[in-house]
Amino acid sequence: MATFQVPQFIDQKPKIVGPLTLQQFAFVGSAALLSFIFYYTFDTFLWIFFSIVLGSIALLLAFGKVNGQEATIVLKSLFKFLLEPRLFLWEKNFSEKKKEESAESIASVRNTMSIQQKLKSITLNITTGKAFSPKISQETQKKEGFQVATFSTGEKKFVKKVDYSE
């Protein structure tokens, strides 16, 4: 029997610079470059303070994880949450208002339709079974031995009920 090697750790990013990925190297390298610039710009005490702060931020961004997510993704989500507007409205009778609005919009559409468009919508409703009355179907089913068959297209038709068990 042939054995095959199954690739593992495919979710890891490739190591570009030594043991660091390109993103990690960018964070650590930029912090080192800024620390080098601060060495010639500030006094010794301020240079040490800023280097420690920058180094800790760079290490957090490069290697930090929160609940299995990279720190950069968590920070992006945090800023998105803080900067995007949030507005939550709660209306007690929302469904009732929606029903009233939909009834009004249907009435306004019907008023603006031409006779041809009304006839087309009526024929469409009849052929698809939307204008189907359950009272009529029950009466015809009881009287004539018919039953309603629903086809895969959604069309409903009366078909004669045949009992083959006899």
Task: Explain what this protein looks like in three dimensions.
By secondary structure, the protein is mainly α. It folds into 3 domains: 22-83, no CATH class; 92-130, no CATH class; 132-166, no CATH class. 58% of the residues lie in helices and 8% in strands. It has helices spanning 22-41, 44-63, 71-83, 94-112, 115-128, 134-144, and strands spanning 65-66, 69-70, 146-150, 156-160. It has a two-stranded antiparallel sheet. A two-stranded antiparallel ribbon has the order 3-4. Strand 3 (146-150) and strand 4 (156-160) form a beta hairpin. Helix 1 packs antiparallel against helix 2 (44-63). The radius of gyration is 36 Å and the shape is elongated. The mean pLDDT is 79.
List the defining traits of the structure above.
166 residues; mainly alpha; two-stranded antiparallel ribbon; 6 helices; 8% strand
H/E element string?
HHEEHHHHEE
Tell me the radius of gyration: 36 Å
For the report, how would you describe the main beta sheet?
A: 2 strands, antiparallel
Structural class: mainly alpha
Strand content: 5-15%
Helicity level: 55-70%
Shape summary:
elongated
Number of domains: 3
- The residue-averaged pLDDT reads 79
How are the secondary structure elements laid out?
Layout (H helix, E strand, L loop, with lengths): L21 H20 L2 H20 L1 E2 L2 E2 H13 L10 H19 L2 H14 L5 H11 L1 E5 L5 E5 L6
Helix pairs in contact: 1-2
